């Protein structure tokens, strides 16, 4: 019994990476160098909204959770920490969990193509933008 | 004696398939070692705040007992459908040890410790992503007409607390909070020499962030020679652990 428990703990502690906050901090004062208009909107359209879109019903989301919709800014800000943990690169973590390996060719379609992957530099920009955007003035 | 053996053998698979932290197997009354191997088939539909779909699982389990001591292990494989995505994979492996401390006059009480390993993929909804430790205390009162069981326990993930903040319950196939208090109550009634029926209520309350969940179930158990079989239908009463789940399990004693 002791051997089995020990083996399980060893397996457990040796598990792979898991989504981790990057601990990226928005510079102060906010330099406004990475914004929704000059980065976020395009990033989300290129890598995310094939599944993470408010227009997609549950059965067509290819596993994307409900209320994780990135086709507008409010949807992104609401789950900014999740985006950081899944796709951001920063001082404390390099998260490459999203996008996944396979993607739909059209929103809501079957997983037919390899997902385009952002570069690590794009992931760093994502983490910085996600760190800054929630504190910026919004109309929503 | 047959009833006791049946109860002991049937408990592991269903219990371990869903991270129950109470009494999984009790010490057999005979002095020698006894073994059992079983398999459970699980099918459920679920509808949580973020995900909806269904899953099916096959959960082999093995159990050993000697005197006051018992141990069991299980490891599930699942087909999971969530928000239109289909995935196949292992769940978290689990082992369980138990010691009966007091016994007599139809009453029995003891302590148990279950430990799980994160063999299931957390990202896919198949595992916790961390080892879990789940100590518990249990009690049982048994008469010729049936039995009543109760347990109270505590479960906690080992490591990775920041990763769970605000992320709700754990695996879709086996919801669990990062840290929680658990309870199980159940009763069984002997209908005939080889046939019993029962009901149970189990649940968990998070310590800190998380979701309270409550599960109710009714079951029928019968035995034929060394083979024990049970069917249980369960409903998620609180916390969206699942909508409806059916479990069929069979075990061979040897």
Describe this protein's structure:
The complex is a heterodimer of chains A (140) and B (254). Chain A has five helices and two strands. In chain A, helix 2 crosses helix 5 and helix 4 packs antiparallel against helix 5 (120-132). Chain A has one domain (19-135). In chain A, strand 1 and strand 2 (111-114) form a beta hairpin. Chain A has 140 residues and is mostly helical. The termini of chain A are far apart. Chain A is globular. Chain A has a two-stranded antiparallel sheet. The longest helix of chain B has 16 residues, at 2-17. Chain B has helices at 2-17, 161-164, and strands at residues 33-47, 52-66, 69-74, 77-82, 85-90, 93-104, 107-117, 132-143, 146-157, 179-192, 195-206, 213-224, 227-238, 244-253. Chain B is mostly beta strands. Chain B has one domain: Porin (Beta Barrel), CATH 2.40.160.40. Chain A binds chain B through residues 1, 4-5, 7-9, 11-13, 15, 18-21, 58-68, 81, 85, 97, 111, and chain B through 49-52, 71, 73, 82-85, 87, 93-95, 97, 115-119, 122-123, 129-131, 158-160, 162-163, 166.
Main features:
heterodimer; A: mainly alpha; two-stranded antiparallel ribbon; 5 helices; 2 strands; B: about 250 residues; mainly beta; Porin; twelve-stranded antiparallel beta barrel; 2 helices; about 60% strand; globular; disordered N terminus
Could you outline the blueprint of secondary structure elements for this entry?
The complex is a heterodimer of chains A (140) and B (254).
Chain A: H1 2-13, H2 36-47, H3 73-78, H4 80-87, E1 102-104, E2 111-114, H5 120-132
Helix pairs in contact in A: 2-5, 4-5
Chain B: H1 2-17, E1 33-47, E2 52-66, E3 69-74, E4 77-82, E5 85-90, E6 93-104, E7 107-117, E8 132-143, E9 146-157, H2 161-164, E10 179-192, E11 195-206, E12 213-224, E13 227-238, E14 244-253
Antiparallel strand pairs in B: 1-2, 1-14, 2-3, 2-4, 3-6, 4-5, 6-7, 7-8, 8-9, 9-10, 10-11, 11-12, 12-13, 13-14
């Amino acid at each position: 019994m002791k051997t089995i428990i020990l083996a399980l703990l060893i397996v457990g502690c040796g598990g792979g990476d898991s989504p981790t906050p990057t601990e990226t901090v928005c510079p102060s004062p906010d330099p406004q160098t990475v914004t929704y208009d000059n980065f976020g909107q395009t990033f989300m359209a290129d890598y995310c909204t094939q599944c993470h879109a408010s227009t997609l019903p549950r059965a067509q989301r290819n596993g994307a959770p409900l209320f994780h919709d990135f086709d507008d800014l409010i949807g992104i800000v609401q789950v900014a920490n999740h985006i950081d943990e899944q796709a951001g690169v920063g001082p404390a973590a390099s998260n490459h969990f999203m996008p996944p390996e396979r993607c739909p060719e059209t929103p809501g379609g079957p997983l037919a193509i390899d997902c385009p992957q952002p570069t690590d530099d794009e992931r760093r920009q994502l983490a910085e933008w996600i760190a800054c955007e929630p504190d910026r003035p919004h109309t929503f | 004696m047959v009833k006791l053996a049946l109860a002991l053998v049937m408990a592991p698979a269903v219990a371990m398939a869903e991270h129950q932290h109470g009494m999984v197997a009790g010490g057999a009354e005979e002095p020698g070692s006894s073994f059992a191997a079983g398999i459970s088939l699980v099918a459920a539909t679920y509808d949580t705040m973020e995900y909806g779909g269904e899953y099916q699982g096959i959960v082999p389990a093995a159990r050993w007992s000697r005197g006051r001591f018992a141990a069991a292990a299980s490891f599930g494989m699942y087909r999971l459908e969530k928000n239109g995505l289909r995935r196949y994979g292992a769940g978290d492996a689990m082992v369980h040890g138990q010691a009966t401390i007091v016994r007599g006059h139809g009453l029995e009480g003891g302590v148990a410790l279950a430990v799980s390993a994160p063999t299931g993929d957390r990202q896919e909804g198949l595992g916790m992503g961390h080892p879990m430790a789940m100590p518990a205390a249990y009690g049982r009162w048994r008469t010729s007409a049936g039995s009543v069981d109760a347990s109270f326990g505590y479960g906690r993930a080992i490591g990775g607390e920041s990763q769970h903040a605000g992320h709700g319950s754990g695996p879709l196939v086996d919801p669990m909070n990062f840290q929680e208090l658990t309870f199980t109550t159940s009763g069984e009634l002997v209908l005939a020499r080889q046939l019993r029926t029962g009901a149970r209520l189990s649940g968990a309350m998070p310590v800190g962030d998380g979701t309270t969940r409550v599960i109710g179930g009714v079951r029928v158990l019968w035995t034929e020679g060394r083979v024990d079989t049970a069917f249980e239908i369960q409903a998620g009463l609180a916390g969206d652990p699942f909508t409806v789940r059916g479990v069929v399990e069979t075990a061979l004693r040897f």
